[in-house]
Amino acid sequence: MAFRRRNKSYPFFSQEFLIQNHADIVFSLVIFVLIGLMFETTAKTAILFIQPQYNVTTLSPEGEVTFYHYGWKDSATILFYFFIAIILHAVVQEYLLDKVNRRLHLSKSKNTKFNESGQLCVFHLVSSVWSLYIVITEGYLFHLSSLWENYPHVHLRFQVKFFYLTQLAYWLHALPELYFQKVRKEEISRQLQYICLYLLHIAAAYSLNLSRVGVVLLFLQYVSELGFHIARLFYFTDENHQKMFDMWAISFVFTRMVTLTLMFLAVGFGLARSENQGLDWEMGNFNTVLIRMTVLLLVCLTQSWLLWKFIRFQLRRWREFRHEQAVRKKAAAKQPLRPLKRDSLGHHENGVLKAENGASPRIKKLKSP
């Protein structure tokens, strides 16, 4: 199963061989784990990689309900879906983005950004739909108090835990993809910034048992980022598409306001009034003043940094627009005047003014072209 067209063969275990065949190598590892399910001696080990662990079955009025909590075995599951993310990344790149790139003929810098936005569009679309489904089915949307009530939220449903594991796996896979995709050095630092921020916030929400607030905030963030990357894709296809950036700007500011409001409501107000105060590692309770203030400070700093980048982006767009307007005015001023046409008598057109009210016509002197 080849994900890349091979125009040239490279020595085994060389750098170019690894970059060109990394998806095939990872696919072989995934097949190796799946084959382990077929044998009784290796099935238990293979399950660790495929299925979320630490399940607890409880009785409820609806019957038996299975919940999950986190532990060190989650690292094996994250590793498996880390490999899955690399494979899906290669599939989207080879069968979708590369075909579009051949038609657009973009420069190297625009090609890198186009691939980045294309990959993130697919991921943000899937994640936003998935997180919205969780928010609706778990009842977070219509009962905001459930975001902080009954804390700590140690027991998670399957869809919530699996969502967090796949989120961590995806953003972890984005780190080696910087190497596999040969991202330019000036782009690496920018991409590392948001990759590390996503990993930090998702891991903090998962480990501090703030999963409910985390799902809602991720939904808002992914919808906003989806709008930005769609606007950038349309811009690369046709640079006249600028209005979608204006629509994204409104959603961006709205997302920042709602994010800060929800965090202060859930963490600063809701958890502060909760009865379960104190630090208890066994119960998963991290409801202390220091941890709450640290979480709020982290979110506020991140949102402030994002707003600062947004303002710089808008100012740059405004300067580019003003520069284009000035260039157009200069180009229009340098255009030569169109020579006046002569009539059949040899006079300039509109050179002889017609008499009004019987007065004698006045001849307008014009220089010959």
UniProtKB/TrEMBL annotation:
Superkingdom as given in the UniProt entry: Eukaryota
PANTHER family: TRANSLOCATING CHAIN-ASSOCIATED MEMBRANE PROTEIN 2, TRANSLOCATION ASSOCIATED MEMBRANE PROTEIN
Transmembrane segments: 21-39, 78-97, 118-142, 215-235, 247-269, 289-308
Subcellular location(s) of the protein: Membrane
Primary site of residence: membrane
Family: Belongs to the TRAM family.
Region (Disordered): 331-369
Compositional bias per record (Basic and acidic residues), positions renumbered to this chain: 340-351
Membrane topology per record: Multi-pass membrane protein
Alphabetized UniProt keyword annotations: Membrane, Protein transport, Translocation, Transmembrane, Transmembrane helix, Transport
InterPro entries, per the entry: TLC-dom, Translocation_assoc_membrane
UniProt entry tagged with the keyword Disulfide bond: no
Protein name: Translocating chain-associated membrane protein
A GO cellular component entry from the record: endoplasmic reticulum membrane
Keyword Phosphoprotein attributed: no
Domain TLC: 112-321
A Pfam family reported for this protein in Swiss-Prot or TrEMBL: TRAM_LAG1_CLN8
GO annotation, biological process: protein insertion into ER membrane; SRP-dependent cotranslational protein targeting to membrane, translocation
